[in-house]
Amino acid sequence: MHILIFQHADVEGPGLFGGLLSEDGHTSTVIHLHANEAIPKLDGFDALWVLGGPMDVWQEDAYPWLAAEKAAIRDAVENRGMPFLGLCLGHQLLAEALGGNVGPSQTPEIGIKDIQLTEIGASGVFLDGVPDRFASLQWHSAEITRMPAGAECLATSPDSPVQAMKWGPRAYSLQFHVEVENNTVADWAAIPEYAAALATAMGADGVDRLAAETEAHLPGFNAIAERIYINWLQAAAQAH
Which residues contact 169 (CB under 8 A, 6 or more apart)? Predict the structure, then answer.
């Protein structure tokens, strides 16, 4: 497969998912939207991945390219039926592009938090083989407040009900992070918006504490990420 990837921050790439893609011989083209790179025509791509970022889906005045990004997501998923994977901001953009709503979190989720599969999630392809309850890295202050029509919630948490979402046969998204690598916390803490949110949630020593907690959970994160990646490929292969 040749995958189009929308990236929103220099240090927030596809993480472990990107390494798995390369190992399997797939290729990708990364568009750095935060650097005002133009979105290409979708014709030459087999799937679309949309990554996380420090901006919010409603900040089109500050980030004008968000409007074009939402239109491209809508075209890819709704019109073309392209396989889709959204992570964090990408999860929220999928909902917004398809007619759902995203707003500020009542309780921002920052730290290592538990995720619970829904009955639909536990019985579907995308989270097959993933434990019913597992830990993840969370670092977000916005959330899906209303899913788009036809969407299904695959996983949830007490503070943010829509943790994983499916729309149609081949579009999937995650609010949480399991694609984490050794340098993820340090890299993301260099983003001012993330650093401020982390300091508010975990205090002045939040970076060191979160890095240590993440390192302890890394084997579990990696195992779940690999399972989700394999499942996504399986779903992507389904006929549209």
Answer: 81, 235, 238, 239, 240
**CA–CA dist 221, 136 (Å, integer):** 7
User: What's the rounded Cα separation, in Å, for the pair 109 and 128?
Assistant: 25
Cα distance between residue 228 and residue 49, in whole Å: 14
Give, in order, the Cα–Cα distances in Å from 117 to each of 17, 83, 97, 113, 135. Answer: 21, 22, 24, 13, 12
Give burial (CB, 10 Å; 0-12/13-18/19+) of 123. Answer: exposed
Taking each helix axis as running N to C, give the angle between helix 206-236 and helix 192-202, from 0 to 180 degrees, rounded to the nearest 10.
120
**Per-residue pLDDT at 240 exceeds 90:** no
* 164-167 β-sheet, strand order: 27-32, 2-7, 47-50, 84-87, 171-174, 164-167, 152-156, 101-117, 133-146
Positions marked active-site: 88, 177, 179
Confidence class for position 91, pLDDT limits 50, 70, 90? very high
Q: Please tell me the distance from the alpha carbon of residue 223 to that of residue 145, in angstroms, as a whole number.
A: 29
Single pTM value for the model: 0.96
pLDDT for the residue numbered 43 = 96
